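Worked example 3 (structure in, sequence out).
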């Protein structure tokens, strides 16, 4: 079947409509209301490093420098680690841990106390590569997260905010990412090749602490990249994050529309000892 970008947008629209339907079906009719909107300009700088130490095993190290007001202020600081196992050329699975610090940004902070808060995650991930549609490479990423974040309660009038979280909250989240990638000027991806990439990722929360806000967020990226070597590539471009806050303001949901740019650097290093050919 020939590839069409309309198919990609159709998949994105279907996922978003399904998420919206789930959220509405779980809330009583009287809870439906007009959302509050919070618009922010963001800039994300990320590095992902894969360290291969065996035929099927590798380590994952990633840091994301997430900023608000383009790069002027903090939005989030995220460190992700993991252990990869290559099941086949098409399938890789991973177990890992994530540490996050979220800062009070925008007009309406995520937590009512208006302070930065920590989060710890465990996650399981599977990345599946589909057969290419012509020159377009297609990959799917499925993630299940167990999230523990510190919640600060809004202090009473005149009282100071606690220096440590008042409580820890556990929530589950499922994620699905679809990525399309196409080399420019060449029939397939190889060294010294520019490329275009587009991806969309939807986040769905579930469990007893999620309440009515099942839709967590959606991310869209439209990127221009360059593969220098098998060990290094660089990509960047437009980035959008639509995020629904886990709390309400005067009985109304809050939806952030964060738009800006993202720059990704990707390193793939092979740590295995090279075997010299026998003389």
């Amino acid at each position: 079947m020939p590839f069409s970008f309309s198919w990609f947008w159709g998949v994105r629209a279907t996922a978003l409509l399904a998420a919206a339907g789930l959220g509405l079906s779980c809330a009583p009719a009287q809870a439906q209301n007009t959302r509050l909107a919070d618009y922010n300009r963001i800039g994300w700088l990320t590095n992902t490093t894969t360290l291969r130490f065996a035929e099927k095993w590798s380590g994952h190290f990633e840091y994301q420098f997430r900023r608000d007001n383009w790069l002027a202020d903090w939005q989030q600081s995220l460190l992700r680690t993991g252990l990869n196992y290559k099941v086949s050329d098409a399938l890789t699975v991973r177990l890992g841990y994530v540490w996050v610090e979220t800062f009070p940004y925008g007009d309406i902070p995520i937590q009512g106390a208006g302070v930065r808060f920590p989060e710890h995650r465990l996650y399981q991930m599977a990345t599946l590569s589909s057969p290419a549609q012509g020159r377009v490479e297609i990959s799917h990423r499925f993630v299940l997260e167990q999230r523990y974040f510190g919640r600060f309660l809004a202090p009473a009038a005149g009282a100071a905010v606690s220096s440590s979280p008042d409580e820890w909250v556990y929530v589950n989240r499922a994620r699905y990412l679809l990525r399309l990638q196409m080399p420019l000027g060449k029939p397939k991806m190889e060294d010294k090749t520019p490329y275009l990439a587009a991806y969309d990722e939807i986040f769905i929360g579930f469990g007893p602490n999620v309440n009515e806000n099942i839709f967590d967020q959606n991310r869209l990226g439209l990127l221009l990249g360059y593969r220098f070597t098998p060990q290094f590539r660089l990509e960047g471009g437009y980035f959008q994050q639509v995020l629904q806050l886990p709390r309400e303001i005067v009985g109304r949901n809050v939806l952030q529309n964060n738009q800006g740019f993202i720059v990704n650097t990707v390193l793939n290093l092979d740590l295995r000892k090279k075997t010299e050919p026998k003389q």
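Notes: Confidence is low (pLDDT under 50) at residues 1-9, 13-31. Residues 194 and 226 are 4 Å apart (CA to CA).
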